Amino acid sequence: MSIEQNTIKENKNFFLRTWLRIKTSEYTYLAAAFLLPFVIMAGVFACMEFHPFGNSSILTLDFQAQYIYYYEEIRNLLVHGGSWLYSWKRTLGGEFMGIVAYYMGSPFNLLLALFPKKNIVDAVTFIQLCKIGTMGLNFGIYLHKTRKLGQMRTLALSMMYALCAYSVVQTIDPMWLDALVFLPLLILGTESLIRKKKVVLYIISLSLIFISNYYMGYMCGIFTFLYFCYYYYTIRPEIYKGEKRFFRTAGFKTFMRFVLSTVLALGISAFMLYGAWYSLGFGKIGFASTDFSLSLRFDYLDLVIKLLPGTYDSVNRAGEPMIYCGALALMCLPLFYLSKSIPKRQKIAATAMLAALVISFTVNTVDLVWHGFSTPNWLNYRYSYVFSFFILTMAADAIKGLGKIKLSHIVVTGVSFSVLVLIIQKLHINFQQGDKSVPLSSAGCIMFSLIVIALYTVILKFIRDKKTTEAAAFVLAAVVCVEMFVASLLSVVGVQNEVGVTKYNNYLDSNGQEVYSSYNGSVQRIQNVVDKILESDKTFYRMESTVYRKNGGVNEPMAYGFNGISHSTSTLNANIIRMMARMGYSSDSHWTKYLGGTPVSDALLGIKYVITKNDTLDGNIFKIAAQGEEGYQIVKSDNIIYAMQNTKALSVAYGVSENVISDMNELTYPPYISGIDYQDRLLKSMLSESGVSGEVLKGITASMSSENCTRSTFNQTHKFTVDGEEKEIQNPYYCFEKKQDGGKALLDFTMPADGPVYFHFTAANFGKTFKVYVKKNNESAKFVSDYFGLETSCIMKLGDFKKGDTVTVELRLNDDALYISKESKYFFCYIDYTALTEAFDQLSSAEMLIEDYGNDYLKGTIDQPTGQELIFTSIPYDAGWNVYIDGEKAETLMVCDSLLAVKSTAGYHDIEFRYMPKGYIAAIILTVISALLMICFIIFVKVEKVRRFVYAKLGKKYVPYGVSGDMIFPTENVPDEPDVSEEISPLAGMIEEPTEPESTTAETEETAVENSENTEENK
After folding, report:
1. What SS3 state is found at 476?
2. In this structure, how many other beta carbons lie within 10 angstroms of the beta carbon of residue 922?
3. Residue 630, in any domain of the structure
4. Contact 194, 235 (CB under 8 A)
5. 448 and 379 within one domain
6. How many domains does the chain divide into?
7. Are residues 587 and 705 in the same domain?
8. How far apart are the first and last CA of the chain?
9. 711, 736 in Cβ contact below 8 A?
10. For 818-832, how does the pLDDT look when each residue is reduced to its tens digit (9 = 90+)?
11. What is the per-residue pLDDT across 771-812, written as a single tens digit (0 to 9) for each?
C-alpha cells in the first residue's frame, strides 16, 4: 500500500478523505476530457450568439419545429407529474411512449426539471453541451483503460471524438447524440466481454443506448457485432486447433456470451422498445416507399474530402457522410499501417472493418439496412459516427506505436496529404444544398487543412523523441483544441446558412414591427390569454390557435399546455391524419395543423376555445372568453389576442345513431370528396334516428366556366389497400389546361342567405397550385389564398356575404394545368344557424359529463336517448383504450376509419375510459425480470470476488460456489474483509479491474497469442 493510500485510509474526515482519493486518482485528469469539449462548444455557441450570448438559439430545422415542444412536455411531466403513456396534446390525442422512445428517452433530459419553463431553450442548450462533454469523458475512459496513451494524447483524441462533425452537426437532432455518449463504454464492454469474460458494462451501456433511442440502438447493435468480429479476430482468435467439436470451442462460448448479454440488454430496455414498436403500428412502418436497388450513392473520393475540416455539405437528401473527426485522425490512418508495433492480424481486421463501413456508405441497399430498411427523410448516413469512432481507435494505436514509425514515414504522410489537399482544391468541389450549389471553402477547408497537417507533422516528429514527448503531447492537445473549435464553428455556420436559425426573443423589422419568429417571444405572445382560459375552465376540452409562430412548428399545444389537434411527429397515426384531411383540416403525411375545418367540425371534435388575433370569429357561434394586448417589447400596438369560445362545442364523447358505423365507413374510399360533403354526411348520420334533420351545412351550387384555358374531364386510377387487400377506383376530375397567360377557372353563384361562405377543393397531389380570388357584385377581385400548397389544401372562408350577392370565384392557374376532383357534391356552403342550434342541442343532450380526467383516463356519466345508443368519441382509435359502462367492460370499435366508439343502450350510465397499451404490462414485467437478473448477477460476481479473496488469504484452493458444498464461505480463520478502496477502481461500478495483468499494447497481445499457439502445438 502506498503512502498516499495509507494517508487516505487513516484520515477520519469523510470529505477530506474523498478529496484526497480524487486528487490521487489516476482518473482525475479525465475531468478535462469533459470540460474541454464542453467549453469549446460553448465558445462556438457564443460566437453564433446563442442565448445567453445573444438573441439567437440552438433551435433550427426539426429542433425548432418538433423537438423543443417535446422537451416542454417532458419537463411538464417531470415537474408536475402525470402519465407518460398518453397525451391529449397531439392530434386529438395519442400514445406518448413512442415519442419518448424515439425523441425523449435520454437520461440527460432529467436536467430539464432544474430549469423554469421560460428557460426551456437554455435548458436544451445546456443539455447538448453536457452530452458533448460526456462524449469526451467516456472516450477518455475508453482510451485510458485500453491504450494508456498518456494524459495529453488521451485528451486530444477525446476532444476529436466529442467534436467530430457528426456530433456538432447533429446538435440539431439531440436524440441521436446519446449513442455517441455511450458508444465508447459499449465498445469497452465488448472488449471486456471478450478479454475477461465480464459482461456487466456491455449490458448496461447497450441498455442505455436502446433506452435513449431505439433507432440508434439498432445501429449501435450492428456496429457492435462488426466490432466483436474485428476484436475477437485481432485479440482472441481460436487457438484450440485440436478441438474438432465446434460447440465446445472458446470462440463459440464467447459468442454465446455476447448474444445472451445482448438479449439481456434488450430485456432491460423492453419497456421502451415495446413503446416504440407499439407506436410504429399506427403508420410509421408503412410511411415511406423505399428503393432497394443495388446502386452507388456517391464517388469514393468524396469520402476522403469529408475527412477534412470545413467540408460541411448539407443535411438534406444530397448530404454525404459526416465523418470528419480531426485532421490528425486522417494522418494517422497510413501511420497505423506503417507501425511495426501493430500486428498484421489487427491491420487485416481493421481493413476489413473500414471496407465494411465504406461499402455501407456507398452501396444503397446496405445503407438501407443500417437505416432499418427505410429511406431517411433528410439527414443521411445517421450511423456515420461509428466510422469516426473506429478511425480514432486506429489513430490511438498509431500514436501509441509512434516510436516504432520512421520519421521519414511521418514526413511523407504529411507531404502526401498536403498534395492531396491541393489536388482537391484544383477539382473545384461543389456541394449541393437543394437547388443551391455551394463551393468548397478555400480558406475554411484548403488553407486550414494545410496548416494543421503541417503542424501535426512537426508535432508527431517531436512526440517520437522521448526527450520531448510530454511537451510535444501538450502542444498536440493545444493544436487539437484550436482545430476542433474552428472546424466546429464552420460546421455550425454551414448548418445555419442552409436551414436558417430561430431567434430566442422577438425582434423588430425595418418597419418597426415585431417579428414573431422566435421561440420564447412567440410562446409569451399568447401564453397569458391561454393561462386565463386554463385557470377559469378546469373541465376537459380542446383548444386551438390561429396565431402561429412564423416559420414555426405545429406542436405548440405542448408548449402552451392545452389539448389540441395540431401536431407533427415521425411516430404518426396515419388513420387520424387521413380523417382530419377528409374533415377539411390541413393534414398530410405526418402532421396536422389547425387550418381549415368549420365551426361545425370544431364543435364535433370538442374544440371549445380558439385563440385568434384582431378579427373575432363568427358571432353566431363564438363568444369572447378572454383577451389581452400583444406583448410588444418596444413598439406598442392595438393588436388584440382573443380567446373565442365555441358555444356549440361537444364533449369528447356523446351519443349518436349507430348508422354512423355503416354510413361513414362507406366514405373511407374514394378519398377525394370535400370536407364540406364529409361533415354534412357525418352530422346527418349522427342524427338520423333522432328526428332532427342535421342539414346545417347548406351546399351552394356554382356554375363553372373558364378563361384562357380549356376545360375537360378525365378519370384517374387510385390504388389503395383495405384489410390487406389491394383495390383501385376511378376518380373523375375536372381538368383546366392553360392556353395562354391569364388562364383561370370561374365559378359563379348567387348567395342564398346572409353569412360567411366556406369552400373546399380536393384532388390527388398533382403538384398543380393556383390562387383563389373572389368578386362580389362586379367589384374588383380580391385575393383570398393560395391553394393546393403544403398547408393550403383545406377548407377556407371565402368571405361574408348578403343574400342576393352575385359571387364569382376565380381560380388563377400557376402552372400549365389545374385538376379538381368531381367526387364532391358541393365546393361551397354556408351555415343554417337555426338548424345548427337544433342539431347540437340534440347531440349535447347525450354528451358525456366528465367528472375526472388525466392523461390516460376519463370518468363521467352519460344519458343517452333512444336513437343515440352509439357512444361516439373524438378519441383516435387505439386498442389500448378500455371502456367500462356501469362497471362492465364494453367492446370498442372503430368508426370513420379512425375514431373510437362503443355500443351502449339508451338511458343513464356511468362510463370510464382507461388507457394501457396492449402488451405493455408484459413489457414492463420483462424489464423488471431482466433488471433483477442483472442485479443478481452483479451480486454473485461481487460475492465470488470476496470468496476468492478469502480462499487466497487462507491459502486454500479456490472452489466456485456450488462446487464447494452448502457453505458460501469457509468458516475457519476468516480474515478481515478487503479494503474496497484499495482493491476496486473508482469506476468499479461499471468497469471492473482485470484479475490478471493486462497487456497494454498490440505488440504484447500478439505475443500472447503466439505463445498460446506454441503451447498448443507442444501439447
Report:
1. helix
2. 11
3. yes
4. yes
5. yes
6. 5
7. no
8. 40
9. yes
10. 999 998 889 999 999
11. 999 999 989 999 999 999 989 999 999 999 999 999 999 999
